[in-house]
């Protein structure tokens, strides 16, 4: 899950709105925002509130933005045929340094999706059964990848994050935030998070192959299909699982090693939609393309990672470089996302 970063930044470029004389398009970080003509200029220092920021009424009133928000929540919109994401304002303090997160100053909070109904019982957490990397949005950190760096871009699935592991000889399963109790043998409903272990023998075999020599091995993936999220990807009345990462003794495998491990055991992985030099234009195209997973819908977006695992400083600390980019179509589609914690 990404953090809320209300950043002090600069407008990269102002360009005309093709369909409105009184509007312009501001490019901010990796986002575009429709603004009033003449409000801002190229290179101007601004404060940017990304989608899913929630502003207190007195703050949004001060910006004359309340009527454009959904119960205080900043959302995407299509304005005269152009996508607009977020809110751009002039800073309260011109001395703020670029890169400063001023969410606390504006008392902004992050929208949290509703908790999934019937997500299952929480189990006592285990310190070695770690969560997956919290992924930030590439639009907030467009410089996270090096120019020309080889990246692997995979489709982001509209499902629920799932982790299954073999930890100190014990099988475990959970959502992103919570470990889940193993369902009883006579359970009549499918448990989303135990599904890969209980219904897919290759998953169990992979964990056991690494677990014979490692203290802990965790496979991460997405469970999706009927009644999981808005998209079912053609999985009518059933659910499915696609793996996207593997950690052994706390260390994530590089993409090629991860994919080879899954291939050896016959485990399907999220589709690769682009591999090559980092290109923001290519990312934008792929994020809005038709899904490669199935069904007749567009993609939720994509996930980017370097071919070679690495860490760097961004977003307030040294972090693993894995970022997401949701497509414009998805962001404007009015979808309901659920959280499992």
Summarize the structure in words:
The protein has 341 residues and is an alpha+beta fold. It has two domains: 7-110, OB fold (Dihydrolipoamide Acetyltransferase, E2P); 136-331, D-amino Acid Aminotransferase, Chain A, domain 1, CATH 3.30.470. It contains six helices and 22 strands. It has helices at 57-62, 195-199, 201-211, 255-265, 280-287, 328-331, and strands spanning 7-16, 23-28, 31-36, 45-49, 53-54, 76-79, 82-85, 87-89, 109-110, 136-137, 150-156, 160-167, 170-174, 179-180, 216-225, 239-248, 251-252, 272-277, 301-306, 311-314, 317-320, 323-326. The strands form six sheets. It has a six-stranded antiparallel β-sheet. A five-stranded antiparallel β-sheet has the order 3-2-1-4-8, with no helix packed on it. Strands 10-22-19-11-18 form a five-stranded mixed β-sheet. Strand 13 (170-174) and strand 14 form a beta hairpin. The longest helix has 11 residues, at 201-211. The protein is elongated, with a radius of gyration of 21 Å. 37% of the residues are buried.
Give unreliable regions as ranges.
none
Q: Residue share in helices?
A: 10-25%
Give, in order, the helices and strands: EEEEEHEEEEEEEEEHHEEEHEHEEEEH
Give the CA-based shape. Answer: elongated
> Hey, roughly how much beta strand do the residues contain?
25-35%
Mean pLDDT over the residues: 91
Q: How many individual β-strands?
A: 22
Number of helices: 6
Strands across the major sheet, in which order?
14-13-12-15-16-17
CATH topology descriptor of the largest domain: D-amino Acid Aminotransferase, Chain A, domain 1
The CATH C-level class name of the largest domain = Alpha Beta
Number of domains: 2
Radius of gyration: 21 Å
Class by helix and strand content?
alpha+beta
Assign the CATH architecture of the largest domain: 2-Layer Sandwich
Strand count, sense and closure of the main sheet?
A: 6 strands, antiparallel
Question: In the CATH hierarchy, what is the superfamily of the largest domain?
Answer: DNA ligase/mRNA capping enzyme
Cα-to-Cα separation, first versus last residue: 11 Å
